[in-house]
Design goal:
The protein has helices at residues 14-25, 32-40, 44-51, 53-65, 84-91, 103-109, 124-141, 153-163; strands at residues 4-7, 28-31, 72-75, 95-100, 144-147. The protein has 164 residues and is α/β, with parallel strands linked by helices. It has a five-stranded parallel beta sheet, sandwiched between helices. The structure holds shikimate-3-phosphate.
């Protein structure tokens, strides 16, 4: 099986869905953020703060290109599609799934979360702008778009398998 890549905004459920999907398909699961943290020996917040976003993005691209390409589900960071190189890489893949969620639903889900440097309550307007500007990039990059609103994790997993 060719690897399945999950893309979408922060809080769209990529990590949760990737685990359930990998379990159902009996393949390995990877998360680009977790891999970055492992390689850098720092949290995402620490990387942004001490090294800056540019370094984070370069690590992120490196990690994406080094993920297994078969028998795996790969959850990606919400900003992975910011780079043209990453978009090109993903467009060449068969199974790229965009988990679409409303901005309001995302903000509700991530209330109180302080692990995402680009998403704090005092940056709401900037976050919404980021969400809007990224939407077309997720859409042009993915082969499959799933509207996650009102769906359970297991419904989303079944829909991905059915539409692959
Ligand atoms: C980011 C999303 C985060 C993480 C970092 C930057 C983004 O991943 O990579 O905080 O630019 O959207 P999740 O999408 O898993 O939250």
């Amino acid at each position: 099986m060719e690897a399945i890549y999950l893309i979408g905004f922060m809080g769209s459920g990529k990590t949760t869905v990737s685990k359930a999907l990998a379990k159902k398909l009996e393949v390995d699961v990877y998360d680009t953020d977790m891999e970055i943290v492992k390689r850098a020996g720092m949290t995402i917040n620490e990387i942004f703060f001490h090294k800056g976003e540019e370094q984070f993005r370069s690590l992120e691209s490196e990690v994406l290109h080094s993920m297994p390409v078969t028998d795996a589900v790969v959850a990606t960071g919400g900003g992975i599609i910011g780079s043209e190189k990453n978009r090109g890489f993903l467009k060449g893949k068969k199974n790229v799934v965009f988990l679409q969620a409303d901005f309001g639903a995302i903000m509700d889900r991530l209330k109180g979360d302080d692990t995402r440097p680009l998403l704090s309550e005092n940056k709401m307007e900037a976050a919404e702008e980021l969400y809007r500007s990224r939407l077309p990039l997720y859409q042009e990059t993915a082969k499959i778009e799933i509207d996650t609103s009102g769906k359970t994790v297991s419904m989303i997993v079944d829909e991905i398998i059915q539409r692959m």
